[in-house]
């Protein structure tokens, strides 16, 4: 049996925590959670999308995402719009307030990526990203 310290899921959780340490202070200073930021980043990148797509893209289960979207809506960062064709389906998009926040945080977040890449090394960062994407791609095969 694989030793626990060589457990890939455990290593990935630890690596996630280390990587998020670079970004958590920025998010905390702006009173948004990691999950809220993830939702906002996806919406900033993809634009208005339906709830199911947002759930899949953010890797957040529907029941949890419902609460996150509700809180973001109360904060004035997202709006929901019912589908014209399907009353059960709705779309979510960023407000101008959220777009401003994303634009304001973008250079701060990028600075943290630069610091992370400097500590790890650009080549190792690229290798790590490539290996993680290869692992993710095994699910699609």
Automatic annotation (TrEMBL):
NCBIfam families: HpaR. This is Homoprotocatechuate degradation operon regulator HpaR. The lineage of its organism: Bacteria, Pseudomonadati, Pseudomonadota, Gammaproteobacteria, Vibrionales. Keywords: DNA-binding, Transcription, Transcription regulation. Signal peptide: none annotated. The keyword Transcription regulation applies. The gene is hpaR. InterPro entries: HpaR/FarR, HTH_MarR-typ, MarR/SlyA-like, Tscrpt_reg_MarR-type_CS, WH-like_DNA-bd_sf, WH_DNA-bd_sf. PANTHER family: 4-HYDROXYPHENYLACETATE CATABOLISM PROTEIN, TRANSCRIPTIONAL REGULATOR, MARR FAMILY. Residues 5-137 form the HTH marR-type domain. PROSITE patterns: HTH_MARR_1 (PS01117), HTH_MARR_2 (PS50995).
């Amino acid at each position: 049996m694989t030793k626990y310290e060589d457990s890939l899921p455990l290593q990935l959780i630890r690596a996630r925590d280390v990587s998020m340490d670079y970004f958590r202070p920025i998010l905390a200073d702006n009173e948004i959670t990691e999950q809220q930021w993830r939702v906002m980043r996806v919406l900033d990148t993809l634009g208005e999308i339906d709830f199911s797509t947002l759930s899949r893209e953010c890797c957040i289960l529907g029941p949890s995402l419902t609460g996150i979207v509700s809180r973001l809506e109360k904060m004035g960062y997202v709006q929901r719009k019912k589908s014209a064709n399907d009353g059960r389906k709705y779309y979510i998009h960023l407000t101008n307030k959220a777009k401003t926040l994303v634009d304001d945080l973008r250079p701060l977040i990028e600075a943290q990526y630069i610091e992370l890449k400097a500590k790890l090394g650009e080549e190792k960062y690229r290798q790590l990203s490539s290996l993680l994407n290869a692992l993710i791609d095994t699910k699609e095969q």
